[in-house]
Amino acid sequence: GENVEQHPSTLSVQEGDSAVIKCTYSDSASNYFPWYKQELGKGPQLIIDIRSNVGEKKDQRIAVTLNKTAKHFSLHITETQPEDSAVYFCAASLMDSNYQLIWGAGTKLIIKP
Amino acid sequence: GAVVSQHPSRVICKSGTSVKIECRSLDFQATTMFWYRQFPKQSLMLMATSNEGSKATYEQGVEKDKFLINHASLTLSTLTVTSAHPEDSSFYICSAMRAEAFFGQGTRLTVV
Fold first, then answer.
1. Tens-digit pLDDT profile for residues A72-107
2. pLDDT digit string, tens, across residues A8-66
3. Among partner residues A41, A43, A99, which is closest to B32 by beta-carbon distance?
């Protein structure tokens, strides 16, 4: 089955700098890759996603890149702000009738003022 | 975007009692909902897939008689933790799919 690895487990960056979180997946059939932000005591919130038919997607300060050949995808946050501090999870899924997400272990992002 | 509402957000119960958690899709119909459990500083662990009108599909190692799932309508799934014990204390999260996964706010269960 699918396996998703996420690195790093903790990332500390200076406010205003960029942050990059990377994930690899094992099942080449996976075709949907979302990223979630989870704040303490809350459920995950989708921040960006990408489907396997594109290599990059951007939404303001957030971007995701996908390399299908290497089976890895990355989250890029530019001009980081204190409110970006949270735990970020990547996931992979085969968008069939099940939509089951396979989750990465999470990255705790700390934005230093 | 779509909204998934989970209730209650926090619950404290005594050992041996049962607790019901509700997950509602407020503005769309969800034939499939997912229930997760999350321990501190860990990722989400899928417990079961809830299917409207049929039995839930449980992941390996999850006791179906302990974690009862009912998906009686297209907008409501419930998770009942039966005969709760302190080790059942955790953060439980539901999600429903509509092109993407929408998550509830989570339920912090503490069994004392």
1. 999 999 999 999 999 999 999 987 656 789 999 999
2. 999 999 999 999 999 999 999 999 999 999 999 999 999 999 998 889 999 999 999 99
3. A99
Say which residues have a Cβ less than 8 Å from residue A81's Cβ, sequence separation at least 6. Answer: A15, A111
Is B101 part of the contact surface with chain A (CB cutoff 8 Å)?
Answer: yes
Environment class of residue A82 by beta-carbon count within 10 Å: exposed (0-12), middle (13-18) or buried (19+)? Answer: exposed
Measured in angstroms, the CA of A67 and the nearest CA of chain B are apart by 21
Chain A contact present for B93, CB below 8 A? yes
A34, B101: Cβ pair inside 8 Å? Answer: yes
Angle, alpha carbons B35-B41-B45 (nearest 5°):
25
The 3-state DSSP class for residue B30 equals: coil
Q: Please tell me the distance in Å from B45's CA to the nearest CA on chain A.
A: 8
Instruction: Give the type of residue at B14.
Output: K
How far, in Å, CA of A85 to CA of A112, rounded?
A: 9
- State the Cα–Cα distance between residues B46 and B95, nearest whole angstrom: 10
Distinct helix (H) and strand (E) counts, chain B: 0, 11
Contact yes or no for B106 and A45 at CB 8 A: no
